[in-house]
């Protein structure tokens, strides 16, 4: 899905007001639904598509996606409650380390499949399942080491981390599952070693390694497996927005991979987040000051990383577009810059409040609007909203 800023321009001009500085998130729900529908339709029949709501759990976002995905993935008790409150029947899975007993209880009582991260977590889930006399569906998240695993900017496995069960503990966990099969319904394995993958060919090789490993364990331990959860991991290229993950190559390659694999391999399940919702959202902020310091020019916008932490979290200069605002009714001058490099910063009392840096602009003035694209995932939802107690941005959802 390629980003189309023009859809937002007229809405932003309508929102701009001479007496009130603008700061908002805008989401195109029609584009989101279309993107999800295209993802789903391009996947082979043996593949399930879940949405990881940690990327963006706003109710309008989830509602737009619900009919185009096979289920949702939650990573906390709060997310489980949020989904069940609004989507009582949607298939739901529960991932992540450090699950509380209360969260495991919530999962069992709400028919949520649990991805087990450690032997101790498995032991606690078993105890809770027996207490409630309610069987628990589980996958074992395993952290294998693959010799040729190519690193990305965010690695959750393939090396010692807090995620997943170490391979040397797998046999013990499977024995516990087998000895308690009346309470623990083993569904398969969960692999999620990396995120921010931009190379479709590399991701196909990784999935092939996942499948091969799962089939080996299936045969070694004489297992019945319903599916393999391969996580998400597909990234968004914020540094070069015209060069995104090649989904067509990937989906075609995945189909060939499954055709060529052993006929007894289980179903495949994805739980994608960033790649699903990032493209549908923008963060917009009005320019409130422009000043120079040494050789640098700083554009201060209403907002910052407390609203939009993505650039700092990803360590990049975020792509943006300047939207000119022609009206100016203030009784003082209007600072501006033509044809120069700027650093775009927010209102926070820290030099880390940096949204874009060393970027060329044709013209920018106080009162103009800066639109940051690709802000529909891990943006507002990972930000420290109440630092300095600034007002929250508006949240506006463009209907389909």
Q: Say how many strands there are.
A: 19
What's the end-to-end separation, in Å?
Answer: 16 Å
Count of runs of 4 or more consecutive helical residues: 11
Shape: elongated
Helix/strand/pairing category: alpha/beta
| CATH overall fold name of the largest domain | TIM Barrel
Share of helix, binned: 25-40%
Strand content: 25-35%
Protein name: Diaminopimelate decarboxylase
Pfam families: Orn_Arg_deC_N
Cofactor: pyridoxal 5'-phosphate
Active site: 349
Give structural notes.
Keywords: Lyase, Pyridoxal phosphate. InterPro entries: Ala_racemase/Decarboxylase_C (IPR009006), De-COase2_N (IPR022644), Orn/DAP/Arg_de-COase (IPR000183), Orn_de-COase (IPR002433), PLP-binding_barrel (IPR029066). This is Diaminopimelate decarboxylase. By secondary structure, the chain is of the alpha/beta class. The protein has 2 domains: 6-26 and 279-398, Lyase, Ornithine Decarboxylase, Chain A, domain 1 (Beta Barrel); 29-277, Alanine racemase (TIM Barrel). The protein has helices at 6-15, 29-42, 59-66, 77-86, 101-109, 119-132, 170-179, 200-220, 247-260, 274-277, 310-314; strands at residues 23-28, 47-52, 71-74, 92-94, 113-116, 136-143, 154-155, 165-166, 184-190, 194-195, 227-229, 267-272, 281-293, 296-301, 320-323, 336-345, 354-365, 369-372, 394-398. Strands 1, 13, 14, 15, 16, 17, 18 and 19 form an 8-stranded mixed beta sheet that branches. An 8-stranded parallel barrel has the order 2-3-4-5-6-9-11-12, surrounded by 5 helices. A hairpin with a 2-residue loop joins β13 (281-293) and β14 (296-301). α2 runs parallel beside α3, α4 (77-86) runs parallel beside α5 (101-109) and α5 packs across α6. 42% of the residues are buried. The model has no long low-confidence stretch (mean pLDDT 91).
């Amino acid at each position: 899905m390629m980003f189309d800023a023009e859809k937002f321009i007229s809405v932003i001009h309508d929102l701009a007001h001479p007496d009130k500085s603008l700061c908002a998130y805008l989401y195109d729900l029609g584009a989101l639904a279309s993107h999800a529908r295209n993802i789903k339709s391009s996947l082979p029949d043996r593949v399930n598509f879940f949405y990881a709501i940690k990327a963006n759990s706003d109710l309008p976002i989830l509602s737009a996606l619900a009919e185009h995905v096979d289920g949702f993935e939650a990573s906390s008790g709060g997310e489980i409650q949020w989904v069940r409150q609004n989507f009582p029947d949607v298939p739901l899975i529960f991932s992540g380390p450090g699950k509380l007993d209360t969260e495991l209880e919530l999962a069992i009582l709400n028919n949520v499949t649990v991805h087990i991260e450690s032997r101790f977590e498995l032991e606690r889930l078993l105890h809770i399942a027996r207490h409630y006399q309610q069987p628990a569906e589980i996958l074992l998240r395993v952290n294998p080491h693959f010799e040729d695993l190519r690193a990305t900017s965010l690695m959750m496995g393939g090396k010692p981390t807090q995620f997943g069960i170490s391979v040397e503990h797998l046999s013990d966990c499977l024995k516990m599952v087998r000895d308690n099969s009346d309470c623990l319904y083993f569904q398969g394995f969960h692999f999620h070693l990396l995120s921010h993958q931009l190379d479709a060919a590399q991701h196909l090789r990784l999935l092939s390694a996942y499948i091969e490993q799962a089939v080996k364990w299936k045969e070694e331990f004489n297992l019945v497996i319903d599916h393999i959860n391969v996580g998400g991991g597909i990234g968004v290229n914020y540094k070069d927005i015209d060069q995104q993950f090649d989904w067509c190559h990937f989906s075609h390659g995945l189909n060939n991979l499954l055709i060529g694999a052993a006929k007894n391999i289980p179903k495949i399940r994805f739980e994608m987040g960033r790649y699903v919702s990032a493209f549908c959202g923008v963060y917009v902020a009005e320019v409130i000051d422009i000043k120079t310091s040494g050789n640098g020019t700083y554009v201060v916008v209403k907002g910052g990383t407390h609203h939009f932490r993505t650039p700092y979290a990803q360590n990049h200069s975020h792509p943006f577009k300047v939207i000119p605002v022609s009206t100016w009714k203030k009784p003082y001058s209007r600072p501006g810059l033509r044809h120069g490099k700027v650093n775009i910063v927010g209102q926070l009392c820290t030099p880390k409040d940096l949204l874009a840096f060393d970027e060329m602009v044709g013209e920018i003035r106080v009162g103009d609007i800066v639109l940051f694209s690709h802000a529909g995932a891990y943006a507002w939802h990972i930000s420290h909203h109440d630092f300095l107690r600034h007002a929250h941005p508006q949240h506006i959802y463009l209907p389909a």
